[in-house]
Write a structure and sequence with these properties.
alpha/beta; six-stranded mixed β-sheet; 6 strands
């Protein structure tokens, strides 16, 4: 069966089972959205934030990309999709919190650590490599602390990537201003696919703790 057909079957189950019970909620959402938190997550099919957090429609504003990366603040002309989403969530929806959620077995972080797509052309990994160059400093840090690229090195890379995104978020003036004014809180997390467990970053200690 073509996968579109499976998606349509899933939609029909939604209409038959979940829609009737949440009709009032969807009526409210038809008037607008007011999520309190934005989640920056990876595009990986295994880490859907709505599923991980058992969130209802309209509760979280989600942006997903390779390795859950927030770029640094830039004002050059271009297609700044993540920056546009951040701007909308913070200045228009006025979310009170932003959560950066990395995850285990992240292909984007692995590409950054190994350099497997370096020097490739478009369609062969060029765009992936270009995007994860944001993690070059984190990669160097991880390589310096691991004699070989074992599972612990990849885990460290995934967690360092979360810290990079948090640092980049703070380069946006209207994010930094709101954080200083205690109007916006930034959080980091790592979801272990193998364990099904979420770890929250304690920025003061630099460690991730299970919740």
């Amino acid at each position: 069966m073509p996968y579109l057909s499976q998606l349509i079957e899933g939609y029909r189950r939604f209409r038959q089972t979940r829609w009737p019970g949440e009709r009032e909620r969807w009526t409210e959402l038809a008037e607008g959205q007011s999520p309190k938190v934005m989640i920056l997550s990876c595009a990986d099919s295994r880490v859907d934030p709505a599923h991980v957090f058992d969130a209802r429609p309209g509760e979280i504003f989600v942006v997903r990309n390779i390795a859950a990366l927030a770029p640094p603040y830039e004002t050059s002309r271009g297609y700044h999709g993540v920056s546009a989403a951040l701007e909308f969530a913070v200045t228009q929806l006025t979310v009170g919190e932003i959560l950066v959620m990395g995850h285990g077995l992240c292909g984007g972080c692995a590409a950054a650590l190994t350099g497997q797509f370096d020097d490739t052309g478009p369609g062969e990994g060029h765009f992936i490599a270009d995007w994860v160059h944001m993690l070059d400093s984190a990669r160097d840090h991880v390589r310096a602390h691991h004699s070989e690229l074992d599972p612990s090195a990849f885990l460290d890379m995934e967690r360092e990537a979360v810290k990079v995104s948090l640092a980049n978020l703070r380069t946006f003036p209207w994010i930094a201003e709101r954080e200083r004014a205690a109007e916006l809180k930034l959080h980091g997390a790592h979801f272990s696919i193998a364990e099904g467990r979420l770890y929250i970053l304690d920025e003061a200690e630099g460690n991730f703790r299970p919740v």
